[in-house]
Amino acid sequence: MTVLIEIKVPDVGNVAEIDVVEVLIQAGDVVALEQTVATLETDKASMDLPSSVSGTIQQVYIKPGDKVSEGSLIATVLANNDQAIAAPVPEASIPEPVVQVEAPVVVKEVEPIKQPVKTQVEVAVLDSDPTQRKAHASPSVRLFARELGVDVAKIKTGSGRKSRILKDDVKKYVKKVMAEGVAATGAGIPSIPAVDFTPYGETEILKLSKIKRLTGQNLSRVWLNLPMVTYHDEADITDLEAFRNSLNAEKVKGEVKITGLMFIIKALVAAMQQFPNFNASLSADGESLILKKYFNIGIAVDTPNGLVVPVLRNANTKSINELALELNEKSEKARLGKLMPADMQGGCLTISSLGGIGGMAFTPIVNAPEVAILGVTRAKMQPVWNGKEFVPRLMLPLDLTYDHRVIDGAEGAKFMALIKQNLSDIRRLLL
After folding, report:
1. Nearest-CA neighbor of 346 among 309, 303, 399?
2. What's the domain range around 247?
3. Most buried in the list 20, 47, 329, 423, measured by CB within 10 Å?
4. What is the pLDDT of residue 120?
């Protein structure tokens, strides 16, 4: 006996809108259990959607370019009755994403519309007229508009069927109001003119993925909206490195080795506990500071698909060995493209380490809505004056970038000094 089973989009972590990149099935195809039927893409990851049953595809309800969400119907499969009993929930199993995020980014796609040009734009967007007609829009579109502070009644005509207002209409309205506000205040930034490079030689057009486009938008938005300061210093980790090597020498074959990054995480968390402004986010209106009582540290990890930032949760409650094991597991998942969006959310402060590559210093960009990011480059032996003579010491370059609206120069310098103290004498981490 056969039964018709639905394949639906599973929960991928509070993502409201998912792009359909590729559909790998069509009506009449025979699919196996766990066979990939489509490729989906969020603003953080690409993921393969597997079939929850084996059988014959009866109908496909999506096509490339469509936008779906949790629970959207992907396809129906004619399967035997045994599979229907074994898999009573008509949903696809949780997919394994192929993460392609290039920089620390945990930001909603709609956020770029909120901040620029307050005096001109926000008044125009938020102002509503209760006497206007009732807008023809679905509840989800109304919710989307409310999140942006838009009165849907001000959108005269929608592009949907029977002039229904769609999300794209809300986005276009806000972009139009923003452009008018920027032009009115003279705050516009001249764009880079288009250039035809073909007269100079052969070229190739490589389209950016959605992830890279949104990453670029996020970094540009942060660069334009945050007054950032980068503070450079060095920490003496000679004794720390000797202790770390002794710990690793005690480990048996197959155990996860401890890296210097584990001690940096602990030193950073200890400093955040004494300087709570570093473990905070500025409210959207810029009037309040949201202090966090948890300590989640994001770690930028290099993968074949680009940089991703898995988050180590509650780092203040975990030992050095526990942190090493968790980071090793998440780094491996990142390299295999198996990180879920939830694995990259909820960070309080990010560490971007170039220690395995090289360099002397750099200026990492804050991963908003966080207010600071710590950069780390390769440690090297240097002659250091101890008051009597020069002695060889292993010095670790550190680069702290922070949001100057929240953190002033003195606080930034004190925060860095405390991190240096903790790394130079790790016994302080026990206090």
Report:
1. 309
2. 227-430
3. 47
4. 38
